[in-house]
């Protein structure tokens, strides 16, 4: 066994699809020697070893752990010796190999951590930084120490008929449609692993398991040079060309190159992201998204904890709860914010005898700083007051949260183009049925736009349909409660409900000015983990318009300059 | 934990004033109606309200610093342009005074370095500025790099103004809004004026959708809104537009020393170390020009790209004062140096509207003056 949280080999064989239990791998994280299994990612190997705290938050210095994976990871890590703004990647994107050395955030963040919590209206400037700035300006000559100017990034221009962004089920389905029409297709996928989260669901496409269907399609596309992995599309220009940042070397993620891909049509199949829940201390290590917990279980045979509690407002929580039980992790209870959930997933969970509490919200967690872990979860009913609300503390060392799904639509929103201009969205829904159907429809629309008739048939999907998750917005009382300052609406940027409330009171109906002041989405994940939480909370506060939403990725000045050169 | 509780207790005690009015409560009449929501408009609202007028401010969007004000949040006294030099001379001192009295406006006496390929013309301007006693002088090229280390690629003499100020434009807007409300003004965000109400040659009020507000005087302090209102009122405004773009980087950028005006680029650094770089349209080309100038900035992450429209009077000068339409006053076309002029122009307008003559330095900017007359003034 490698690590105390690895499932025993007696666990069902469907857990640990990506790891080889026979082959241990040794690596170092922050100087500490640890071991994982062949096929582990840095994130899963750390979780298996019981490393719950991956670093601390930039402004408030709160300990943070693994919550989301890939694009939604707000605690990115870096390999030793790798530098630059793109060197910080999700631990799930780094495949562990013998002798690998990785580290948490850089010195700049550690320095900022020393600062006391910033006052509401000077959030951008913690005390220590303020002092450094003052010193810098008081010096007669600024210290002539400058970062070495980076060479212009490698940049190239490419053309194709159709570019598909995202190689999840929707993207692969779109690719099937477009290739059946005989078009020159390119695909870019931000992760090193194609297929999205298809392997986290049970079901069949054309008679084969979801993951197998996706893997076969993806490897065929990779062999033909159609699919490029670790390539993130960050912008679609008004002329329809797509800016893609590629990490050509897995050993050095910080080294990136830029591709400007001009396509006749673009299919945006970026998929959906799970939304966290808002409650006091919702950022504590041990609070994990349902899909993240399931990914660790199914791919790497890693248990998120020993005593789990599930809080959900969608079917996703039940799926993870059932997996946890199968894997031998004790599930204390499932807390569902909905009053009357329906559907097959809920029925199966109920039939399996999982203890379920409906109309129940998590109001906070109990966290032991020294141990670095959760000890309990506070919960109460949505309705009723005082004693009838049934406030209680449940014991658990991991809290699985799921607030339903929000589309990863930042690319689309950023461009403002639509199907008429050749940008086709394949964002129909988070379920495999909607993903495949939406992808196929978007592919068909792109093919029709280019005048190529389809010759294939749409893949047939058999999965359990989802009930749409209900969004339960944070209640107005929760803004004023003592927990508001610990309930995060943007984790990576350290923005809480309390901050948002004070900003709205102070700045009035000015979403853009509030976003600027609070630094919304300026964390290392560009606001992606927090999905649309800030927007939902802002609306619940009665604000007009929208605060800043997540960004698909942020270029450096260097990359912009390189793009200017390719454009010439 | 204790410090955090203490902090939140302090924050609770400092409850912000209720400075935002709901659109439904717009008054039927007021003395002065201000159109616009940026620092310029808020400055006018504050100045008029302090002078005792009943002021209502209507902004079609947010009440916060406008894009062009944030693009170059620098206030300086020295100006290559002679007319602006006269009006802006007191701007930094005025800003410091206002910031002190309002509180909560972080200002940095950062200095400002103006660089131009044609350093001889700059030198001539510098001689005049120096003679006027504005505290600016030419520095040789070696000193330029010492003042601003990232500018390794520039090899010309430059104009340095030590006392220029970099200000947090959003905080300034907020503080001005608070002061205006404290003086009795009312602020309405998300309530744009749709038309001027005319009575013969004079304007008597504003239409805001289906609502009408009668006003003794109307101040147009938002270029875009002004153009729409005046055009629809069959008037003419002589403004030219310039499309620019502002790149904002993540915090912690290398120190650039003073704020930099390099030809048509404007570079400033806020207190969190985020750079704002503003230049002609085309974010990519702008980044490229910046890196030729300062290669050390290459690794900075761009967190925001914002297109900004800058309006300038046709003769390159702003239009401040009474318009051709009776009852309408303008504070428009401030150009790239929008923030420097905002407070002096507001004071001048408030004085002029109360029947005073205002500052004589603003006479060349009066909108009723023909361009020919202005040219004459320039020659004289």
From TrEMBL, chain A:
GO terms for molecular function: oxidoreductase activity. Keywords: Oxidoreductase. It comes from the Bacteria. The keyword Repressor does not apply. It holds the Pfam family Pyr_redox_2. InterPro entries: 2Fe-2S-bd_N, FAD/NAD-bd_sf, FAD/NAD-binding_dom, Metab_Enz_Cyan_OpOx_G3PDH. The keyword Amino-acid biosynthesis does not apply. Residues 161-421 form the FAD/NAD(P)-binding domain. PANTHER family: ANAEROBIC GLYCEROL-3-PHOSPHATE DEHYDROGENASE SUBUNIT B (PTHR42949). This is FAD-binding protein. It comes from Hansschlegelia zhihuaiae. The lineage of its organism: Bacteria, Pseudomonadati, Pseudomonadota, Alphaproteobacteria, Hyphomicrobiales.
């Amino acid at each position: 066994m490698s690590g105390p949280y690895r499932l025993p080999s007696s666990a069902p064989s469907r857990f640990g699809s990506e790891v080889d239990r026979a082959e241990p791998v040794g690596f170092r994280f922050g100087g500490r020697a640890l071991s994982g299994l062949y096929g582990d990612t840095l994130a899963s190997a750390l979780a298996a070893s019981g490393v719950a705290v991956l670093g601390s938050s930039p402004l408030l210095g709160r300990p943070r752990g693994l919550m989301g994976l890939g694009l939604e990871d707000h605690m990115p890590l870096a390999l030793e010796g790798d530098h630059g703004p793109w060197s910080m990647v999700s631990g799930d994107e780094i495949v562990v190999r013998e002798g690998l050395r990785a580290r948490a955030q850089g010195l700049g963040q550690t320095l900022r951590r020393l600062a006391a919590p910033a006052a509401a209206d000077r959030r951008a400037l913690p005390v220590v930084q303020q002092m450094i700035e003052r010193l810098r300006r008081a010096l007669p000559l600024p210290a002539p120490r400058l970062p070495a100017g980076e060479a212009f990034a490698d940049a190239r221009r490419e053309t194709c008929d159709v570019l598909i962004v995202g190689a999840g089920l929707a993207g692969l389905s779109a690719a099937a449609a477009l290739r059946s029409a005989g078009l020159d297709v390119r695909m870019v996928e931000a992760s090193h692993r194609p297929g999205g989260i298809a392997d986290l669901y049970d079901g069949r496409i054309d008679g084969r398991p979801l993951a197998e269907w996706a893997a076969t399609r993806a490897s065929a596309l990779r062999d033909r040079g159609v699919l490029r992995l670790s390539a993130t599309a960050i912008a679609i220009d008004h002329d329809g060309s797509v800016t893609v940042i590629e990490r050509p070397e897995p050993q050095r993620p910080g080294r990136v190159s830029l591709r400007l891909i001009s396509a006749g049509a673009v299919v945006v199949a970026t998929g959906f992201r799970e939304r966290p829940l808002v409650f006091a201390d919702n950022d504590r290590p041990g609070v994990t998204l349902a899909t993240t917990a399931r990914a660790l279980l199914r791919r790497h045979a890693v248990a998120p904890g020993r005593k789990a509690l599930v809080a959900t407002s969608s079917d996703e929580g039940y799926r993870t709860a059932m997996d946890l039980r199968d894997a031998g992790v004790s599930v204390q209870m499932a807390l569902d914010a909905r009053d009357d959930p329906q559907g097959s997933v809920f029925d199966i969970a109920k039939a399996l005898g999982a203890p379920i509490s409906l109309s129940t919200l998590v109001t906070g967690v109990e966290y032991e700083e020294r141990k670095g872990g959760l000890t309990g979860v506070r919960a109460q009913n949505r309705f009723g007051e005082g004693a009838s609300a049934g406030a209680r503390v449940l014991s658990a060392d991991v809290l699985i949260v799921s607030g339903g799904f929000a589309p990863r639509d930042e690319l689309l929103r950023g461009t403002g183009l639509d199907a008429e201009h050749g940008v086709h969205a394949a964002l129909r829904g988070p379920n495999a049925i909607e993903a495949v159907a939406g992808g196929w429809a978007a592919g068909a629309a792109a093919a029709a736009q280019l005048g190529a008739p389809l010759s294939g048939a749409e893949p047939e999907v058999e999965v359990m349909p989802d009930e749409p998750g209900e969004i339960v917005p944070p209640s107005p009382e929760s803004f004023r409660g003592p927990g508001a300052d610990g309930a995060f609406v943007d984790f990576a940027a350290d923005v809480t409900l309390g901050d948002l409330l004070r900003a709205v009171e102070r700045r009035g109906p000015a979403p853009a000015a509030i976003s600027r002041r609070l630094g919304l989405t300026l964390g290392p994940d560009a606001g992606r983990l927090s999905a649309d939480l800030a927007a939902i909370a802002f609306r619940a506060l009665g604000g007009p318009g929208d605060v800043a939403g997540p960004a698909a990725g942020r270029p450096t000045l260097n990359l912009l300059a390189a793009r200017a050169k390719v454009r010439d | 934990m204790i410090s955090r509780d203490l902090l939140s207790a302090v924050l609770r005690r400092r409850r912000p004033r209720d400075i935002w009015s709901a659109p439904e409560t717009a008054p039927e009449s007021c003395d002065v109606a201000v159109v616009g929501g940026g620092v310029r408009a808020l400055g006018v609202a504050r100045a008029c309200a302090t002078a005792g007028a009943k002021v209502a401010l209507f902004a079609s969007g947010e009440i916060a610093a406008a894009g062009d004000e944030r693009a170059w949040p620098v206030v300086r006294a020295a100006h290559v342009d002679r007319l602006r030099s006269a009006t802006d001379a007191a701007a930094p001192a005025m800003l410091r005074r206002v910031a002190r009295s309002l509180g909560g406006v972080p200002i940095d006496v950062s200095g400002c370095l103006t660089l131009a390929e044609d350093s001889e013309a700059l030198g001539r301007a510098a001689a005049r500025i120096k003679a006027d006693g504005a505290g600016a002088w030419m520095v040789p090229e070696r000193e330029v790099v010492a003042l601003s280390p990232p500018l390794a690629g520039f090899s010309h003499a430059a104009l340095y103004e030590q006392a220029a100020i970099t200000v947090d434009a959003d905080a300034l807007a907020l503080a001005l809004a608070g002061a205006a409300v404290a003086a009795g003004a009312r602020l309405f965000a998300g309530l744009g004026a749709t038309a001027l109400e005319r009575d013969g040659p004079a304007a008597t009020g504003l239409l805001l959708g289906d609502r009408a507000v009668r006003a003794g005087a109307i101040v147009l302090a938002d270029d875009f809104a002004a153009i729409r209102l005046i055009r629809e009122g069959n008037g003419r405004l002589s403004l030219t537009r310039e499309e620019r773009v502002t790149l904002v980087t993540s915090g912690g950028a290398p120190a650039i020393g003073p704020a930099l005006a390099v030809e048509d680029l404007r570079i400033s650094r806020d207190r969190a170390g985020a750079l704002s770089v503003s230049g002609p349209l085309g974010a990519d080309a702008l980044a490229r020009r910046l890196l030729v100038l300062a290669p050390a900035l290459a690794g900075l992450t761009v967190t925001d790209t914002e297109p900004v429209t800058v309006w300038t009077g046709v003769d390159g000068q702003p239009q401040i004062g009474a318009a051709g339409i009776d009852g309408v006053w303008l504070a428009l076309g401030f150009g790239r140096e929008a923030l420097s002029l905002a407070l002096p122009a507001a004071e001048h307008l408030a004085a002029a509207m109360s029947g005073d003559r205002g500052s004589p330095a603003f006479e060349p900017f009066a909108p009723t003056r023909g361009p020919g007359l202005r040219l004459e003034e320039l020659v004289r």
